[in-house]
Amino acid sequence: MNRYKIVISGPFAAGKTTFINTVTEIDPVNTEAKTTHTNEAGIKDSTTVAMDFGRITLDGENVLHIFGTPGQFRFNYMWSILGKDALGIIVVVDSGEKDKFDEARDMINFFRVKTDAPLVVALNQFENKNGLTEDEARKLLGLPNKIPIISCDARNKESVKHVLLELLRLILARGDTY
Amino acid sequence: MLEGSLKDFTLDEVLQIISMGEKTGRLILKGETPFGKKEGAIFFERGQVKDAETEQYRGEPAVVDLLSIKEGYFKFVPEDVSHIKQSINKSIPDLVLLATSKLDEWDRIKNKISSVDSVFKLSSDGIPERIHLTPTQWRIISLLSKGLTIRQIALKLNMTVIDVSKDVYGLVALKIVREVGQKDAEGKRFVKRRGASRNFIIRLIERLKRV
After folding, report:
1. What's the sign of the alpha-carbon dihedral B10, B194, A64, A163?
2. Which domain holds residue B40?
3. Per residue in B66-120, pLDDT tens?
4. Tens of pLDDT, residues A133-152
5. Do the bridges between strand A149-152 and strand B2-5 make them parallel or antiparallel, or are there none, so unpaired?
6. pLDDT above 70 for A56
């Protein structure tokens, strides 16, 4: 069995777990724990502490695993472990949380330094939020043009598929395959 | 604030994160070197190294001293460094290369290179503008782009594989080249490739469209 992997990362509460749950063909495996930091507990009750896991099976021999990382920098050892040998990286950023963009930029740079994998940014547009546009987000993240930034809704299957397809097309275009 | 163990990051990776993020502040480093315990700080302004200090040195020697830390702890504290006098004019890539040139541990090289039979290709990112490569490094880039392995290049340039590996390590750390696979010891046949097959990705795209 050939197992390949794509990693979904991004700051705390950006929508990574939702992104995976939306597209996985199996019941997602989540490693959530109650948030204890006071500034995080006000945003959501639980947070990913090790990884999320989803799967898309191609055939009896080939399967794609989708791993989600914890969002907080203090769990960066998991980013290294999960990022190793990944086909590609998707960094999910909440378009309405401007104060998380500095954190997202550090995360993007972490994966650019640590891995050779192609990377795309998924700009999660939640409802009822005055979110940033792709151009505004690119500027705020200091993102070079070669890194795609794609607006999406992590709860919408077609939207999540669109981001994954863009990443796969980028992998093909970069010539990383054989 | 960036903070962590040098087990999880190598020092040149930390420098690159600060550089790419154009951070201003103080990188505190503490840890073990082959020459004993070292502690000090590197000062950054908009992602560029401005100054550094250890107990013994100030400026470039201090950076070199701190870059020899193999195990330890780092902490980046964002702060105003306008009062710090500029004593270092080398770019981060040059400092990474300087550190690389001081490397003699194959273990560290193996962080970036799987084998002396590895094959590399030029990164799509291209070569950074602010960088000074030696004539040897340019020759190595040229030979790597023709598909030669480290072992083959060493033979061709009459260098040791360790010396070629050190230069390739620096080029990989700077994202100028990246490893795409390995050849067998005779340098003829690919015995391993990284990543997935093109066919797999194309079939995966079709599969995903049907999800």
Report:
1. positive
2. 2-101
3. 887 878 999 999 999 999 999 998 888 777 676 666 655 566 776 678 788 888 8
4. 999 999 999 998 889 999 99
5. unpaired
6. yes
Distance of residue B102 Cα from the nearest chain A Cα, in angstroms? 21
Collapsing DSSP to helix, strand or coil, A46 comes out as strand
* B198 in any annotated domain: no
Taking the Cβ of residue A44 and every Cβ of chain B, the question of whether any pair is shorter than 8 Å is answered with no
Residue A81: its pLDDT value, please? 83
Q: What is the CATH number of the domain that holds B141?
A: 1.10.10
Question: Within 13 A of B136's CA, how many CA atoms are on the CB side?
Answer: 15
Is the residue at B20 inside a domain? yes
Distance CA B175, CA A126 (A): 35
Contact indicator for A168, B205 with CB cutoff of 8 Å: yes
Full set of structural domains in chain A with CATH: 2-174 (3.40.50.300)
Complex ipTM: 0.80
Does one domain contain both B25 and B96?
Answer: yes
* B181 falls within a domain: yes
Structural domains of chain B, count: 2
**Cβ contacts of B201 on chain A, cutoff 8 Å:** 87, 168, 171-172, 177
| B122 found inside a domain | yes
Claim to verify: residue B9 and residue B89 sit in the same structural domain: yes
- Predicted confidence band of residue B51 (pLDDT cuts 50, 70, 90): very high
Q: Rounded CA gap, A100 and B162, in Å?
A: 43
Summarised one tens digit per residue, pLDDT across range B136-147 is: 999 999 999 998
A171 touches chain B (CB under 8 A): yes
